[in-house]
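Q: Predict the assembly, please.
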Amino acid sequence: MLAIDGTELQRRFYALAREHHPDFHQAAPPEERARVEETSALVNAAYRTLRDPIARVDYLVRLEEGRETREGAADKPKAPPALLQEMFEIQEALAEARAETTSGTLDDATRGTLAGKREGLRARLRDEDARLSGPLSARWDAAAPAERAAVLAAFKEALATRAYLRTVIDDLAEALGEGDSSEGDKSVAHHRH
Amino acid sequence: MSRIIGIDLGTTNSLVAYVDEATGLPRVIPDSEGRPLLPSVVAFTPDGIVVGEAARRQLARRPADTVYSVKRLMGRGFEDVKDEARYLPFRILPGDGLVRLAVGGREVTPPEVSAAVLKALKERAERHFGESVDKAVVTVPAYFNDAQRQATKDAGRIAGLDVVRIVNEPTAASLAYGLQRLSEGVIAVYDLGGGTFDVSILKTNDGVFEVLATNGDTHLGGDDLDRVLALWLLEDIAVRHHAELDRDCVDLARDPEAMQELRLAAEAAKIRLSTEERTTLTIPFAGFTYRRDITRAELERLVEPLVTRTLGPARRALADAGLEPKDIDQVVLVGGSTRVPLVRRRVQELFGKTPHSQLNPDEVVALGAAVQAHILAGGITNMLLLDVTPLSLGIESLGGIVNVLIPRNTTIPTSAREMFTTSVDGQTLVDLHVVQGERELVKDCRSLGRFELRIDPMPAGMPKIEVTFLIDANGILQVQAREQRTGKAASIEVKPTYGLSESDVERMIEDSFTYAEADVETRMLIEARNEADTVLVHAGRALKQGADLVPADERAAIEAAVAALRAARAGDDRDRIHDATTALNRATEHLAELLMDAALKGALGSRRATEILGER
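A: Predicted assembly structure:
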């Protein structure tokens, strides 16, 4: 089930966190403390995955594929060709804009165009997130076992689309001089989604 | 479980606290004279190490051997601090690896200096409880990286303290507030201390303190406000007193004693301007006395860029928590620098709420450390702190790119597993470079260290080495590796980039006995001599500047008192030095008052000279 009651999730997380946190096992022997630390890390990871609807889907896909980590997917997910074409055009425009400036800074018109494109892509990313966590997740929960493969494929496509969108949004942000850490963009820390 | 104390190891001041079993409330342990704060100043004298107020008083007289604000140097390299080092009166030695200081005729590292402060607090607690204390919870800025945390832990070990937990300062503050149910809901803690800035966003719910995000700047604090003011004053002095400076061929900027006087005067003026609209600075230099009025508006104009610099991290913490300012229920102020009215205004503007600070911002972090210590000792079971790691952790991959394993603001403890293999037949060494930071390139991040994994020789690509990176509840990284085919744990050699090796720490523990802190008798003698020096300097200056203000017999009496004190100071009799100091003080009282009245005539309106003297 992908639908989760957030309040109940938090309640259970707090209960498990209390039970397994190293704070309450200070007097235990070193091996047991090390074990508690690992369990505590696992509880934290579980909560992190379950509270975020996108991470939840990502985890489900990994489970279904029998992968342990995000790395090493047997076949890399493919984004829809139409999207690829569009991304390619934006990348090209970006490269051209960069080549034309000798000073390394973009002129206002180019900046405006790129910023506009970025806003468009951000809106699409939001739409994609909403589709993943809303209707698609609901479809999985309602699906009969035979239909699950189709939903899974849809998940993978949506996740791949997100990944491409994020990469291009990051590239655009960087070209606009907003890509460094001072902007506080989450993109770097979450680059591997 | 034995007793655990809570320590706030601050840039400017440090404190020790515990939870009183009778009331269940945390309390700060004062020194024998009732002072809660221990200045984080360490003087290396020929007679031994002096810590706290006695060391602080000799800052201006022995600048080269008196270390202050050492927290800003913890876990750092020479390259990181060389800009700042220009303004420090003690010597920092160039070189690779962690910072080393040359003071009191020997080399010391920042953890050793911090250890002296921790040791003084440990002894304070031992006197209070009448028993030995060897476990502590020590706080650090939330934005401290792995090396800075490890350095703090090492300092504890050198001081003979087992640091059972490193706690983030803003989180500790929220524990102190939470224990007294002074705050519930979503809280923003804005912590501007002497040298560091942190902002943390927390959610409190039924005894659970869950940190959602944290951000900050480990090189931004009250020290920086003092410095901009001091540098501005330096320019003003150059303009107004160029005649005297030229005549005496003095370059104040190159005179550590003068610069220290200037810094201390700037700090005092900044503090006064938090409650007054206008204040007067009076700084006696050799050959002239500098005096000027400064208004709060002038100070605010100078420090505005620094205060504005805190707003970026605050916004980033909010964004990382996925919140808007309106979602914050309460804003808590921590750290002495939040007394500056401009800071309060900017915080209020950002969050749209009046920040509060019911608990003393100087003490609240130590109180929180005591609460966490009590939790660990089993004294509190209904409170749980869930903190986060402030910086993303990654390893270097091909092309100098950072491969992020643990993103920032991940709840700790947390772990990440990664598989590695070899690229050459018979390869027995796999080298992992671990970094911390938010940038994509290794060179823009902070190098934590290299981990060298040793494995049995096998054909290329055959070994499957599983490496586990665990960030523990202290925010400190632990690495474990296992070769999966053989099931053997790979041996790991850790080479910290800016840290102490195990053998360094061992040696420093040995050293700390050799260079033992001056014993109480010696320390009191040193304090008496320091006091005598101060009074002698003042008397000498007064005689020089105001010889014609008093009759000859009074002048002769002062000169006699000076000679008596000089003689007493040369000996080892503390009481005699003390009595001679008091006598000289009394002998010069009249002259000092005349001098001040003459100097201030007309400049200060209705205020009496004695009030001004009292401020110095």
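The first strand of chain B starts at residue 5 and ends at 9. The mean pLDDT of chain B is 89.
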